[in-house]
Design goal:
Radius of gyration: 21 Å
Shape: globular
Strand content: under 5%
Distance between the termini: 59 Å
Helix content: over 70%
Order of helices and strands: HHHHHHHHHHHHHHHHHHH
Largest sheet: none
């Protein structure tokens, strides 16, 4: 017998109270770096690498759930927990590498937002960079009125990205049968495909959102929560993660599918975002290139805001630096604005940022898995044996692929 209507409404209202943190986090998985990698993969290898997006998403769901669990169980974010369990010297090291990671992340995101403004409105890059900085500052400043406000803003930008790529899919008319087959069945046509798959998978998990997610859940956490209330919070947050991360999966898969249907079908290899934007107009018309530009701008702005928020969490958590919040935001944004102002080659800057992020990733994932495996810290939410095994397998894969990317970068093969 179905439940009364008002019971379903109450359940929905209860769920909606918890929806939000994962949508902020999900932006890291549809940032401008994903645009470049996914478009390149689709234009070179058709639909063959869509499965990489699926497996990347499954790993990301696991790691973000772990970060949320740490925050819910302990009442502290990951940097704060590190400050409690590791030595002062270790935490200073963690802070320095994490701060570089946050700045490197902001660099890539700012470049994306700047490029979006440049492509849509032909605003010179230097002015577009400052506009991106101001808009990012305004989004993050809205935290003053509560985290929920920022969640709505970021959620709206995620919706814009999703709508943009829905339009792209409609115009591209892909081969859905082939897309479905390659989503479920892994294939690597040649050595170049292996390297590109490693890039798509290894660069998926971003250290800054692992730090940030454990902080975002605190807005719905209470110090006097019982174990049962914590378990309920975790269940609700896992639903939040499942919804948000699967939207990110759909957008990422759409990037590869559209690129395959448009560029591969026309014999074009596309390896820059600018080239993709310029090529869409003659192939699919101005609506397509416009939707692409708007999606890129929304991605750049939202992911820049998320990177800045992560920088705040990192700066305060590891070493307890008491710096005014607006100054913390400016410190995180500054390197990206300086690089744009100096006119440094964006592609070179993105390579450097990738190296920094690859180096920083183990220092986020490994302490998180270690802390969440300690019963004295996690209580009833401590990792179960099977969770530990899965966690270390995923960690080995992600860290290993990032090590491959570092090697390839330093040897000049990427």
């Amino acid at each position: 017998m179905p439940l009364p209507k008002d019971t379903w409404l109450e359940k929905l209202k209860g769920l909606l109270k918890y929806i939000g943190p994962a949508f902020i986090v999900s932006v890291a998985y549809i940032d401008p770096g994903n645009f470049a990698t996914n478009i390149s993969g689709g234009s070179i290898f058709n639909y063959n690498l869509v499965w990489v997006i699926l497996w990347s998403n499954l790993m990301a769901i696991f790691l973000q759930s772990m970060s949320a669990k740490l925050g819910i169980a302990t009442g502290h974010n990951l940097p704060e927990m590190c400050s409690k369990v590791f030595s002062k010297k270790t935490n200073w090291f963690f802070w320095i590498e994490a701060e570089f990671a946050a700045m490197a992340t902001d660099l890539a995101e700012f470049l994306g937002g700047t490029l979006g403004l440049y492509l849509l409105f032909h605003i010179p890059m230097i002015y577009a960079g400052f506009i991106t900085g101001v808009l990012t500052f305004l989004i993050v400043y809205m935290e003053k009125y509560g985290q929920k406000v920022v969640e709505w803003i970021i959620g709206t930008l995620v919706a814009v990205i999703t709508i943009g790529y829905t339009i792209e899919l409609f115009l591209a008319k892909p081969d859905w049968t082939q897309a479905g087959i390659h989503t479920l069945i892994p294939s690597l046509p040649n050595g170049e495909a292996v390297l590109l798959a490693a890039g798509m998978l290894g660069a998926t998990v971003m250290p800054h959102v692992i730090y940030l997610h454990s902080q975002l859940v605190q807005a719905r956490n209470k110090k006097n929560f019982t174990d049962e209330q914590k378990r309920k919070h975790l269940r609700m947050e896992r639903i939040d993660i499942a919804i948000a991360m699967n939207i990110a999966f759909i957008v990422n898969a759409a990037m590869v599918i559209v690129s395959a249907a448009v560029f591969f079908r026309n014999g074009m290899v596309v390896d820059t975002i600018e080239q993709a934007h310029q090529s869409l107009t003659p192939l699919l018309g101005p609506l397509s290139s416009g939707a692409f530009g708007i999606a890129l701008l929304a991605s750049g702005l939202s992911s820049s805001a998320v990177g800045t928020m992560a920088g705040q969490t990192i700066m305060k958590g590891f070493v307890g630096l008491s710096i005014p919040i607006n100054l913390r935001r400016l410190i995180t944004m500054a390197p990206a604005l300086i690089i744009i102002a100096l006119g440094i080659n964006p592609m070179n800057a993105l390579v450097i940022s990738q190296v920094v992020l690859s180096f920083a990733l183990p220092f986020a994932i490994i302490p998180m898995l270690w802390i969440t495996s300690r019963k004295d810290l996690m209580g009833s939410l401590v990792n179960k044996p099977v969770t530990k095994v899965v966690g270390w397998i995923i960690t080995s894969i992600v860290v290993g692929l990032n090590a491959v990317l570092l090697y390839l970068t330093f040897t000049g093969n990427v």
